[in-house]
Amino acid sequence: MEQDLQQPINAEGEPLTVEQAIANLRQTADTGLRYYAAWWLGRFRVSEPAAVKALVIALEDESDRAPDGGYPLRRNAARALGKLGDRTVVPALIHCLACDDYYVREAAAQALESLGDPLAIPALRALLRGGVTAAVAVPGKPHLVQPYNAVLEALGTLGATDAVEDIAPFLEHDVAQVQNAATRALYQLTGDATYCDRLVERLQEPNLQLRRSAMMDLGAIGYLPAAEAIAATLAENSLKLIALQGVLESHLRQSNFPNQVLSDEARRVLVLMDELL
Amino acid sequence: MGATVAELVRAIETADSKGAMVVAVNQLAAARDVAAIPSLITVLGYNNPGAAVAAVNGLAALGSAAVPALLEQIDGYNYGARAWAIRALALIGDPRALPVLLETARGDFALSVRRAAARGLGTIRWALLPADQAAIAQRDVLEVLTQATADPEWVVRYAAVAGLQTLATDLVNPEEKPLILAFLRRIFEQDETPTVQARARLALDALAAPH
After folding, report:
1. Which of B54, B7, B47 is nearest to B26 (CA)?
2. To the nearest whole angstrom, how far is the Cα of A161 from the nearest Cα of chain B?
3. Inter-chain contact B112–A1, Cβ cutoff 8 Å?
4. What is the dihedral of CA B201, B203, B205, B210, to 10 degrees?
5. CA atoms within 13 Å, Cβ hemisphere of B146
6. Contact B197/A1, CB-based, under 8 Å?
7. In this complex, is the C-beta atom of B115 within 8 Å of any C-beta atom belonging to chain A?
8. Could you read off the pLDDT tens digit of each residue along chain A, which spans 277 residues?
9. CA–CA separation, A37 vs A24, rounded Å?
10. For residue A12, which of A59, A163, A264, B61 sits 20 to 30 Å off, Cα-Cα?
11. Residue B39 and residue A121: Cα distance in Å, rounded?
């Protein structure tokens, strides 16, 4: 059973090899096979050049179209590229930020955040153009005109200190998750902990979705003083453990673990995590 | 206050919203009465996480008294109920739950259930077993927990490390302790997830400290 979890398989449950997955992505006759292959290459972190090249080509795909006009294969390819750590694909992902498909733009922004290349900053900032006034919902769609959460989070992670003035107005956006994303980015860019306190307050929200979102944001930025509040919030233990992992690992990086001994703060977080297992 | 278990059970049966159900289950759990056990177990299958958490805590507070009923019904549960029952058994630490915890830690498909089972294996109350039986069972637990340190999910490896730490302090055969220490050292040095490495470091530090 454990082995099954690790075993790469194809959509029919048959074992899939790296070569086969790349071949499936390259062919154009069966869009389902391509879609699955793109996901699979990201899932199993296949970062060899042939896989990366095939995924970059898939970012321009025209054959796989969703009923809403979207590009499912492009979305999956962008997500996969975010996991492979190869920064040569950054220009191709930047190009995707101009795609008509909202979900392609969102996947590209998230992938650019993961890849960590500041080259993406100007194109990401451009998506904030028009500020909060322009950041409205698309009629008939469950999303805003741009993937603001992903863009704000990426700008924070990429260290876009010049963008602080563009980001700050989003603290007042109507959508709480957008506020959280702006808060998180501003903390990363300014180091001002009062931003994190806003997120800690959100852990008391009556709405579970908002509590979860604030918790994951605190984990993503690794705000150590929030550890107790995360452990105590009303949400699933599985998510709390992931958020605390984020808090702990950010602290471990700063304290030069494992070359240095475990700090008292790290021990404190581990004790909290033990209680949630 | 002063409501009988029957009244508290009726409050669960007549709850008209998820929130009301959570309140009613909390009240039944707070009664700490063995007569509440069948109803608390039934709640595990309701697909209401808030109520299930309350029921698990209520069952755990009743300890060994809840174990026979939990084990008796465990194969008849739907998947969600089984996961919650494993959690209750893991919290109680009664050795009668060892076979099901071992089986679950070895191969349940949900990582949160493998995680709970690994934790439970680490917190078995060994004093409840005769020493010779405990020694045999601890060998099984050691085997399953070391296997779980290779789980693809970091949180299961984390729980296995925590379990190995407590097992090392409760060993009937102390000669197995160096084996556990060697495992923990390897995890500290080689695990791909810093959180798991840190947990192994914590375990090694604790086991090296004089008691």
Report:
1. B54
2. 28
3. no
4. -170
5. 16
6. no
7. yes
8. 333 344 566 656 666 889 999 999 999 899 999 999 999 999 989 999 999 999 999 999 999 999 988 999 999 999 999 999 999 999 999 999 999 999 999 999 999 999 999 999 999 999 999 999 999 999 999 999 999 999 999 999 999 999 999 999 999 999 989 999 999 999 999 999 899 998 999 998 888 888 999 999 999 888 999 999 999 988 888 899 999 999 999 999 988 998 888 999 999 999 999 999 8
9. 6
10. A59
11. 57
Per the CB < 8 Å rule, is B194 touching A277?
no
Q: Which residue of B has its CA nearest to A275?
A: B119
Write down the architecture of domain B1-92 according to CATH: Alpha Horseshoe (1.25)
On chain B, the residues whose CB falls within 8 A of the CB of A239 are none
Residue B123: CB atoms within 10 Å: 18
Among the partner-chain residues A253, A258, A261, the one whose CB lies closest to the CB of B197 is A258
For this complex, say whether ipTM is above 0.90: no
Residue of B nearest to A2 (CA): B107
Measured between beta carbons, the chain B residues lying within 8 angstroms of A270 are: 198-199, 202
Which pair of tokens denotes residue A52?
């990366």
